[in-house]
Amino acid sequence: MKKESLKKALKEFGKDFQAISDLLKDRNQRQVRSHYYNSQEQLKKKSLKRRKLKKTYSTS
Q: Where is this region: Disordered (predicted)?
């Protein structure tokens, strides 16, 4: 599954994982949904790290 294709499909279809899996052909609905939620979790972790770093540098 190419990241660019997935990003475009998510923008177009939102959380319609069945439509995305139909479009991508090489992934089923469960795989697309799992990838989406894993990506969301990674984005949250990165955001928290950035906030912590920003807070650390702003208090120095």
A: 31-60
Q: What is the pLDDT of residues 5-24, one digit of tens each?
A: 888 998 899 999 999 999 98
51 phi and psi angles, rounded to 5 deg: -65, -40
Torsion (CA) 22, 14, 46, 58 in degrees, nearest 10: 160
Question: Rounded to a whole number, what is the distance in angstroms from the first to the last CA of the chain?
Answer: 43
Q: Is the dihedral of CA 13, 15, 18, 23 positive or negative?
A: positive
Q: Are 51 and 59 in contact (CB under 8 A)?
A: no
Whether the full predicted model's pTM is greater than 0.70, yes or no, is no
In terms of residue numbers, what domain contains 34? 3-59
Which pLDDT value is given to residue 46? 82
